[in-house]
Amino acid sequence: MRNLLFIFLSITTFTFAQNTEKVNLSNPNATIYTHLYFLQSDSYFPKKAAKTINGLPEDLAIKKAKRIKQVLDGKGLFVDFSKIPTNPNYNDTIGYVKSYKYVLFPNRMPLISVEKTDKNWHYSEETIQNIDALYNEVYPWYVRKIQDFVPDAGHKKLFGIELWQILMSLILFGIAFVIYFICKWISYFILRKVQYRITHSKNAEINSFLKKLAHPISLLVGIWFIETIFPSLKFGLHVNKWVFLILNIAATVFWIYVFLKLVKVVMRIYSEFTERTHGRLDDQLVPILHKFLTGIVLFLGFLKLLTLLGIDTTAVIAGVSIGGLALALASQDTVKNLIGTVMIFLDKPFHIGDWVEADSISGEVEEVGFRSTRIRGVDTSIYQIPNSKLAEITINNKGLRLFRRYNTQLGIRYDTPPELIEAFVKGVREIIIAHPETRSESYNVEFNGFGDSALLILVNVYFKSLEWGVEQSSKHKFHIAIVKLAKALGVEFAFPSSTIMIEQFPDKKSVDLAYNTNPENINTSITKVVEEFTKNHLK
């Protein structure tokens, strides 16, 4: 009698405890709490949990409610009720059309949500339609079949975990290890084929990057395999939560590594491309792009890690944006220089190695950085010009000339005979034609005027090389040949002077030079000088 009384009191107490918790569907928080509370082992009442499913028979609603919880538990998705809204009219849409809907895990499980129907909140039609597919995805049929063959001894527990779960975990990680090695070889083979098809080259450095890239890709495949099969081992929510947190953090770190190596590979391929181009400004862009892309990968990876740890990245991005705005206002010159850098790389007014003139600065462009451009002057000093200023001023790019023009005038004495003037002009022309660094099809050598103390010979010539040093060397050879020609012909170069004419001075002879105007001597002298110039240049 006493035992019957105890059983009666227990049943009464249990029934009273269940009835104290009522079904509450007034807001998203209450609906999700009702669903999960009545499926706990100490408060198990599936009929009340099924009230969160709208428009289905009770038996089917109970099945759907259980599967929703099993999917959340299998993926280790712990519901934090402090973050779920309690507003009965909560709406997640910004715009003219209101959507009374709340998604529990937008990033990891976007298909499970609750929505308002009439005055109450229930699991959405989208969730009901997709829950069976989600359940089969989390618990594949072939893994569920294995559980049917587990003997009774396999259900014995060690440290609170059944033996079959421990054994299957070891087998799972062993298979993932084998998959890692197989995928490592396959991914490296595919990456190498793709790289060769794009670049048509077998660069040892790129191959080294591809080998390193194959490691994290293979690890990601192994992690994907574990994430797919592990929920079927039916560990508890807390175990799955930590396991999936560790797996997701590891996957994020590996993805960061993959993209960092991918940036290196892309930059190395781009570097090979820029080496084949004429301009060197693209070469300067490689390290800048490399740093920029690396920064983006690390920043996005950091945001992903914060999301996994449950930190709201919206606040972080907002803080970074406000801080960036404040920093930009405090350093407007730096922002201007960055914009100037972008404009220089877009417009490409010069290349590395070009000789430019900008305002009063003249020199060779050595480096284009984020903030300024470095120019080395003629005296080998360095000019650091802010890119904002360089993008605004007029730049004379000597490096973009097709040829280097050289224009000068040779002054010879007034008493030079016409025959030798013609011979001298002819000889200079032949030197230009014989010079390998000049354009033989475009030049001018003419007797073009009378100076104060000399007859003026115009020399207008174009040198092929655009480098300043090569141009000076070419001028040197050209000038030496002209001096030798003048000496061979007996032509004297004039210098500023005054001439006094004295008529009928007794016993004084004329001071006029004795020029040799013999045609044979002239031709021989020209030929000799030109042949000597050609011979010396070819040595």
From TrEMBL:
Coiled-coil annotated spans: none
GO molecular function, one term: mechanosensitive monoatomic ion channel activity
Topology in the lipid bilayer: Multi-pass membrane protein
UniProt xrefs under SUPFAM superfamilies: Mechanosensitive channel protein MscS (YggB), C-terminal domain, Mechanosensitive channel protein MscS (YggB), transmembrane region, Sm-like ribonucleoproteins
Keyword Thylakoid in annotation: no
Membrane-spanning parts: 166-191, 212-230, 242-263, 284-303, 309-330
Gene3D superfamilies cross-referenced by the UniProt entry: 1.10.287.1260, 2.30.30.60, 3.30.70.100
Subcellular location: Cell membrane
GO cellular component: plasma membrane
Pfam families: MS_channel_2nd, MS_channel_3rd
Keywords carried by this UniProt record: Cell membrane, Membrane, Transmembrane, Transmembrane helix
InterPro entries: LSM_dom_sf, MS_channel_C, MscS_beta-dom_sf, MscS_channel_2nd, MscS_channel_C_sf, MscS_channel_TM-2, YnaI-like
All copies of domain Mechanosensitive ion channel MscS C-terminal, residue ranges: 408-492
Domain (Mechanosensitive ion channel MscS): residue spans on this chain: 333-397
UniProt record similarity statement: Belongs to the MscS (TC 1.A.23) family.
Listed name of the protein: Mechanosensitive ion channel protein MscS
Gene source species: Tenacibaculum todarodis
